[in-house]
Amino acid sequence: MPPVRDPGRSRPTQRADCVPQLPCDEPGCNRWFRNLSGLTQHKRTYHPSFSRYPEGFRNNPGLLGSVEHEDHVADRSSPLPDHASDGYQGEDLLDREREAMSAKFIGPGSKVYRNYHPGLNARKCDDRGQFLPDDAPPPPCAEKVPNDWNPYHNQLEFELADFLFTHVEMSAKKINMLLEIWATSLLESGGQPLFMNHADLYGVIDSTRVGNVRWENFTIQYAGEERNNDPAPWMSNVYDVWFRDPREVIHNILANSGFTDELDYVPYREYDASNDQRCWQDFMSGDWAWEQADRILGDDPTTGGATLVPVILGSDKTTVSVATGQTDYYPLYLSIGNVRNTVCRAHRNAVVLIGFLAMPKTTREHASTPAFRRFKRQLFHSSLTRILHSLCRPMKVPETVLFGDNYYRRVIYALAAYIADYEEQVLLLCIVRNWCPKCLAHRDNLDENALRRSREHCDTVIEEFELRKLWETYGIVGDIVPFTNDFPRADIHQMLSPDILHQLIKGGFKDHLVDWVERYLVHIHGKSEAEKILDDIDRRIAAVAPFTGLRRFPQGRHFKQWTGDDSKGLMKVYIAAIEGHVPKDVVCTFRAFLEFCYLVRQNVITEQMLTEIDDALSRFHRFREVFPNAGVIETFSLPWQHAMKHYPYLICQFGVPNGLCSSITESKHVKAVKRPYRRTNRFKALGQMILINQRLDKLTAARADFQQRGMLNGTCLSKAFEVLGSHTNRISEGQDAADEGDEQTTSYEEDAGDTLDDPMAINAHVSLTRKYQRARAKNVGALAAELGVPEIPTILCRFLHSQLHPTDTRNPEDIPLYECPFFDGKIRVYNSACSTFFAPSDLSGTHGMRREYIRSCPMWRNEGPRYDCVFVVTDPQADGMRGLDVACILCFFSFKYQGTLFPCAVVHWFDRIRDGPDTATGMWIVRPSRRTHNLRNIAIIHIDTIYRAAHLIPVYSSHNIDPRGIKPHHSYDMFHSFYVNKYADHHTFEITF
Questions:
Q1: What number of helices (H) and strands (E) belong to the chain?
Q2: 244: which residues sit within 8 A by CB, 6+ positions away?
Q3: 204: closest CA among 244, 167, 149, 146?
Q4: Which of these, 394, 642, 368, 616, lies nearest to 498 by C-alpha position?
Q5: CA–CA gap between residue 579 and residue 590 (Å, rounded)
Q6: Largest alpha-carbon pair distance within the chain?
Q7: DSSP assignments along 670-736, one per residue
Q8: Gap between the Cα atoms of 783 and 771, Å rounded
């Protein structure tokens, strides 16, 4: 319902002819307004206050009261540079802007080129802001001694502190116990442990000077008029807000040497050199950065040569404890648009916790009152204004900042994007629920075409209409002003970014489509029969073969607490599980939706892909009509699904959505909120969590500093050997081998895969693991008996011939055996191989590299055998699946012949059933390949021809097999046709077209 007017603060009555009655009291302003909301919006927009205490804290009686600072913050903005007002180098800068843009090729092969912004082009300067020649060396700075471990005594002390506090997260009591045992063991030799107790350890960490941005707080209390003698409890409560100076946090990010090669300093537009099509990737490739740079230069030409730093914010409530009472926190995060997406997704501390917002609570009696709801909204916006206040001045006048490459640059800030789920977007934009935050479509018909929301439109309607009209017609909460109105370079209407996690994965897929399928089955078949069908769908999902990163659903999907990972896992297998139980149009609806999700999630999006995204959206809108036609739903006016219409525009503005997804901030919840909370004693936990985060940041910053100086090359043990003059590193080498052979797994889920920070050298590479299986076959004959394939010796001879005579074009079956070399030596059998490939759209390292294990073992987790499938490159010149074949790995082995090592795999080939993918699901269909006499088509291949693992899902609808008793490890043996699961991960989606 619309907000009820506060009887204690009635609005001025309006004449019948609506003549403006309220004048603006600012000197020199002659504007008049019809209502109070219009006057307030006008003053906050055109007469903003940039003093230390935001206007929302001083001039909002009835909303917020006084602000008590426990730690007053001085205005630490750098003084105006000498040339800020006198046109210093102005003529030269303008001349540089007029120079024609030149194309610069990026990456190997000159396949992509960029046009960089000619004005805000990140020129290097000295610490006074004086520009330097392009080839000038970095300004002199205080050099640190290479072996200065201060405040630690040596590498061993630092590594121990980092290990105990960051990796093990050991409690103070256990640290004391460990150090006491250590001290006891050293009594005879007269030695002492590195730390005396936990207090000594914490003290050393606290004395670290790098990465130190101290936490501060302010308090807020309601100071409005109380309407009766029994005020609501929330009116007398004091609310604490904790924060760190965002300006100093940004300085630390820019000065981090680990990010030097992962920053985009200048807005750019990227093009494919083969067809001149525009490409979007990281944030600075979007139109927002380019247009903002144009706007900054237009407002003040003396900013030329500066570096634009787009500020990205994110906030979301999170629950840390339910069993012991509802314990919630409201973290606020910050990043910058200069950091590339792969770095943000690799969790390299480019997303930083900068605050904990207050969460007002009250009794049920007062929780739904208009006054309390208004107070919560204003508290949120005024808190953000206060926290971000230090960025106001450098949004107008550039400041000089040191970067990780030891050069200074003049930096100018702008609030660029805000990562938030739908509930948070409603709060940020001051709109009513069920309305779209991005456009003016009415909530009863969100699919209609409508103009995008803008600050100008919002200001205009607020000046013209009363609160009820704003609420009902425009979905605007007119008595709250967004925090962005307090900043010169910010507009919340432009800042809201796409949210793949909540809008598509949790919202559109799980809460809408999956629920509609269940409702459809009940509507068509009745509740009893529908439950049988749903049970069969669950059994199909449970019978899917294992795959790296695939989430298991052994009991189906009927459980209460769904996570984002659960929804992502279900998306990968659901379409094949429902096929045959629902009409083709329902399957096509899921296909269009999944293709849309996977396309917008890619790491690089081109103009052609934008066309494909539009096509997938059109197909989704067309096929989803099956649900209302069947009487399952009544309307498509759903904000989550409607948000899909805005993705193409937002991609052009901000680059690809995977760099601004709320999954980044939600994963940060674990590290910055949930795990620190578990380390507290639960009494006034917030203070302990803040201290834990501060120590973690100091340890991270110290590690980056030591790495920059080359002090962490090698392990503590290798350094000790060097000091002792020993040339043997057997212990460390043995440990390295053990580490590489240790294949990581996660609970009951399949292997999650590893992220690699190594630079991309090749697109894909497969290697056998270091450990071979001593208990398995040791010669070719034994291997043939173990696999039940007696023709293995013959196949191996022909394989050797193909390796030794690669130019022989004859069919291997036609080559006489007497022409083939014979091998009867020793072999080594392996249970797995490691595939490393370039997959920046999936969870990967900073350079987009990812590693996964391919299994082929007779027993996996004591449940049964596991023989993974792979993609084999059979035609390097063809695209997609036409250049790939699918095979099942029966065994990995290696042998030496004439001094050459041959790492191989015994495979069972699959044949493609059609010349293209299935029209309903969009997936290729394959079946096990058979030779004459119905024998399996077995071959031996070199592992260099393997691209990566493949995942197959049975075509359940074409089998009369009850999946009730089928286990995942039986999946590839029990069915005779399979979908090549292109939804297994984003990289598979990109290569299996």
A1: 33, 32
A2: 213, 214, 215, 216, 353, 354, 355
A3: 149
A4: 642
A5: 10
A6: 107
A7: IIIIIHHHHTS-STTHHHHHHHHHHHHHHHHHHHHHHHHTT--SS-HHHHHHHHHT----HHHHHHH
A8: 18
SS3 at position 476: strand
CB 417 within 8 A of CB 313: yes
CA 345 centroid distance within chain: 4
Judged against a pLDDT cut of 90, whether residue 258 lies above it is answered with: no
Question: Whole-number mean pLDDT of the chain?
Answer: 84
Cβ-Cβ contacts under 8 Å for 390 (sequence gap 6 or more): 73, 75, 76, 77, 245, 246, 247, 248
Angle between the 198-206 and 155-162 helix axes, to the nearest 10 degrees? Answer: 100
Q: What is the pLDDT of residue 67?
A: 41
**pLDDT reported for residue 100:** 43
Burial class (CB in 10 A: 0-12, 13-18, 19+), 247: buried
Kindly report the CA angle at 620 between 619 and 625, in degrees rounded to 5?
100
Residue with the larger pLDDT of the pair 54 and 899: 899
Containing 386, the helix (H) or strand (E) segment is helix 370-387
CB neighbours of 526 closer than 8 A, spacing ≥ 6? none
SS3 (DSSP) at 148: coil
> Which is it for strands 318-321 and 238-244: parallel, antiparallel or unpaired?
unpaired
Burial of residue 921 (number of CB atoms within 10 Å: 0-12, 13-18, 19+)? buried
Residues 452 and 685: their CA atoms lie apart, in Å, by 43
State which amino acid sits at residue 971.
S
DSSP reduced 3-state for 588: helix
Residue 632: phi, psi to the nearest 5?
A: -85, -40
Phi then psi dihedrals of residue 465, to 5 deg: -120, 160
Q: Which two tokens stand for residue 960?
A: 């009369």
* pLDDT tier for residue 759 given thresholds of 50, 70 and 90: low
